[in-house]
């Protein structure tokens, strides 16, 4: 229409694709003049160029619109009528992405969908539906590879695990290391033994030593003989709920079970957005979390400030507390305390706090 050369037409095309508004405005007169000189009405030329600018703002192919519209309709139908299948599919698409998984878990909770811990008795590599609940896979645990889950599944074919010591002994043959056993414990994958996680963790070394003592060589293969000696006596330990919740979050990326902060939010009707949602905002009007780390820092002019890490049931956020605010609140910035805060986001994982208020919990 405008008799542009191929080179000049490509410059206009790139300006549209990259939304270069200044270049689009600069080329408008050339386009309209070129159209007029080529025999087109000025009004038509202007109308066409307005469409070009509009497309540069946000252009969308009609075929794409139809495809996305159809997919949106289909997904909305599945979400409304087949929730379990819908969320299992979403979760299986985010294995390894703890941020997205945490978002979907939070939504499942809101939909009253029950979630089951990963379990060595269900060594799947995918989320599955188990008795109208969603079961987590072993592969969702940090440090647990597909091969570990496959090895546990293979060993189960030789008979179910009778107890904790039986499991550790039999799986030690597959070269599962100390850290991986700890990850399985912290993720709740051994909860079915009916023993709390602190006890399982503290007895792990005894269990591994027992595994070494009952190993025998048969036909050039290392096997275990459970009849050689009796398993050690298990000493029981009491769980620290906060510590258990922290370790669970370390290996899953979130708390699948009830985090103490969830109990507090429900009891005291604390209605704020979870941290994972607040990370998307540029300014946080009101947030709530538990202190998990405090690092004091001295500025160049000698004043004290602090970097405070907080978390909730969904995510973790770093609060930057400048000297003027820190001087007022430093006495109650202790690990384990809960607080309200507001401030400007520095980046996705950091917030420059402008207000901190200690939450004083009554006896639960």
Layout of helices and strands, plus pairs?
Layout (H helix, E strand, L loop, with lengths): L5 H12 L3 H17 L4 H16 L4 H20 L1 H10 L5 H13 L4 E2 L11 E2 L4 E2 L10 H11 L7 H9 L5 H9 L10 H6 L1 H10 L1 E4 L2 E4 L16 H12 L7 H8 L7 H4 L4 E16 L5 E8 L4 E6 L1 H7 L8 E10 L2 E10 L5
Parallel strand pairs: 1-3, 8-10
Antiparallel strand pairs: 2-3, 4-5, 6-7, 6-9, 7-8, 9-10
Describe the structure.
This protein has 364 residues and is an alpha+beta fold. 45% of the residues lie in helices and 18% in strands. It has helices at residues 6-17, 21-37, 42-57, 62-81, 83-92, 98-110, 146-156, 164-172, 178-186, 197-202, 204-213, 241-252, 260-267, 275-278, 323-329, and strands at 115-116, 128-129, 134-135, 215-218, 221-224, 283-298, 304-311, 316-321, 338-347, 350-359. A 5-stranded mixed barrel has the order 6-7-8-10-9. Strand 9 and strand 10 form a beta hairpin. It is extended and about 100 Å long. 26% of the residues are buried. The mean pLDDT is 91.
